[in-house]
Write a structure and sequence with these properties.
Helix content: 40-55%
Shape: globular
Number of domains: 2
Number of helices: 11
Largest sheet: 6 strands, parallel
């Protein structure tokens, strides 16, 4: 059972989300929060796997709450669910540690699959912003100076190839087709890449790849 916290300042939104989520046999809403501060407190006292987090909330907003929650050991995955798809919100949310980003007009089917995806550590970005997001990373994410981080040196040539394809926005199925290997093999490679780079999910791996010059510009 995937345990979920709903963090949104609108009760009607939380009620609608709860109805969608609780209708799924493997998903359960275990807590709700009307602002970022309440969400942070709930994480400290409730067992949670995924947080569905709004951005604009009174007091502590969703991005700051995500930043504080993601800094904790064994933190739950945060799925940003918002009406705003402006680049600045996407960038800030992902840099704060969010594992996914979806718009509130997303279909219920995609929403529940997004929850399962981030719970598995795969990450997800709304299709409507994925290509633009990657294009903006190409132009704006600065490369980190100095020697390559230790984790990067441990990647095999195939794992580097997989990382570059992740950064290009390809799914596991698309990577499998590009490399002419099976999807389970790709999942194994992705898991090893995430572990070696010490990043939580593939969204953070995209940021890592651009920061360290492992993706085209």
């Amino acid at each position: 059972m995937i345990k979920i916290l709903l963090a949104d300042d609108q009760m009607l939104v939380r009620t609608g989300l709860r109805m969608i989520i609780d209708s799924e046999p493997d998903l359960q809403v275990v807590a709700e929060a009307g602002d970022g501060a309440s969400a942070i407190r709930e994480v400290g006292r409730t067992e949670i796997d995924v947080i569905m987090m709004d951005i604009r909330m009174p007091g502590v907003d969703g991005i700051e709450a995500t930043r504080q929650i993601s800094a904790r050991p064994n933190a739950p995955s945060v799925l940003i669910l918002t009406t705003y798809d402006a680049d600045e919100y996407v960038f800030d949310a992902l840099r704060a540690g969010a594992a996914g980003f979806l718009l509130k007009h997303t279909s219920p089917e995609l929403l529940v699959e997004a929850v399962r995806s981030v719970a598995r550590g795969e990450g997800l970005i709304a299709p409507s912003v994925t290509r633009r997001l990657i294009a903006e990373f190409v132009r704006h994410v600065p490369r980190r100076p100095g020697d390559p981080p230790p984790g990067l040196a441990t990647l095999t040539s195939r794992e580097r190839e997989v990382l570059s394809l992740i950064a290009a926005g390809l799914s596991n199925a698309e990577i499998a087709a590009a490399l002419v290997v099976s999807e389970p093999t790709v999942k194994t490679h992705v898991g090893r890449v995430l572990a070696k780079l010490e990043v939580r999910d593939r969204v953070q791996a995209v940021i890592y790849a651009y920061e360290h010059g492992l993706a085209g510009r």
